[in-house]
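ok here's the first one, seq then struct tokens
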Amino acid sequence: MIDRFLLDTGIFFVFSAFAAAGLTGITISILRRRAILDLPNARSSHTMPTPRGGGWGLMLALLPVWVWATFAAGRITQLSELFVILGAVLLMAVSWIDDRRGLSAGVRILVQIAATGLVMATLPRDLSITDGFLPMPLDRLLAGVIWIWFINLFNFMDGIDGLSGGSAAAMGFGLMLVSLRYGPSELDAFRGAAIAAACVGFLYWNWQPAKVFLGDIGSIPLGYLLGYALIHLAMNGGLIMALIIPLYYLSDATITLVRRALRRERVWQAHREHFYQRAVQLGRSHARTAKTAIVTQFALAIFAAMACIWGWPMLISAALLVALLMRWMARPPKAA
């Protein structure tokens, strides 16, 4: 069974990666013709006008595979699974409007609450993120808040060439490894592989120097699908693994947000205070910073798979690894 799964996954991995690369290439041409560009400003990490909206290519490769896998697994009739798909489509539409015209933070959050809330309300009752510790309404509320935070932190972390695509690929790889080892089903493993594949295809265009950026059309729905996969894993008893896989993103975004909140700054406004942005400001290239973060996150994926056996010690090890990464990012590079 596993051998057949690996064969099918390998075929679809190659298909999704090439589809994402091809569709992103087409998207770049359209964005350039319509002059949909991200212009540099004081908070930018890039210096040249670059097409924004490359997430169209990634999502148009990923979402059909996600739908096909859900259908093939016989889960398309479950309301929660159907609402996940509809939520991703809704977020793509609203995020594109935000990319083109701009929307208030309140409107964006309301749409995210709708997209996540419908899923939370229709999930099977045997799923619990607190393993039954909290009453079901509070359990669902907590899971929904975490999911919305993950969507936004993923968007916040989309700031230098290659980081979001490579990080999502590492997280997808981690979800695949953990789902194969721990469960709950091969569908979850396939979804992780599909995310990784589509992101690898997008990286062809997004690595330094980036020829296109994700834009909200990519980072918001991608964070939404990744967040769902992680929440689903946590609700099936895999809380430790679900924490390890995105631990660097959780740590960088949360620490930065708390620091800004303590200074009474507007936390939803664009800035350049994340650890990865500080690494670039201190003189490290986009490529070196992104590569170091991505390699670390692939290590986290392996730690998560090992946590299926050893549990909490692997979470502690993962936290130490992330602390070392952020310390490296925050310190000036040694002179040659």
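and now the second one, same deal
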Amino acid sequence: MAISSWPFEVDPVHFFGWADNVFTKQECEKIIKLATKGKLIESQVGFGQPEVKTNKDVRISKIKWVAPTKEFEWVFRKLTDATTNLNNKFFKFDLFGCIEGLQFTSYKAPGGKYDKHVDRSLGGVVRKLSISVQLSDPTTYQGGDLCFYTGEGPHRVSKKQGTVIAFPSFVQHQIQPVTKGQRYSLVSWITGKPFK
């Protein structure tokens, strides 16, 4: 009698990956200057839910959506290359694009934060890979750590300016409260076929 079994493969998916110096200090400052022109709006929570709302118990920040206009096209190109490289190295997901644009985010002291959450939700766009760009010089603010929760307490990642961090959108993470200064970041979510 033959015993059937499912094939065994090693899981190639890391909890996160990163690339330092993707954007230079000057490029980060240029992105901040361009994105802070005009008004930023209060951030909301509830992606994929019937009701999207402001909830300062969970999230305190201001945002602006960034489209691939002439002044931001170079950012999209550079981020696309970095994302492709990180995906190939750390995740190997079947991806096909960034349909939500980029979200520029400002976390300001005292208290700018985003409590523990995941970037996926039932009934929403299929977010497979989340991307975060560290825009601020880490000497200009305190707190505001991007932390991942993968089993053993919070894992804080590099605050080095210009670093691009990628992680599966199902990984729980948070931005800890900013206690001094202001932290700027650029985030995006890359879509693909549903996980099967």
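notes on #2: The chain has a mean pLDDT of 91. The first helix runs from residue 25 to 35.
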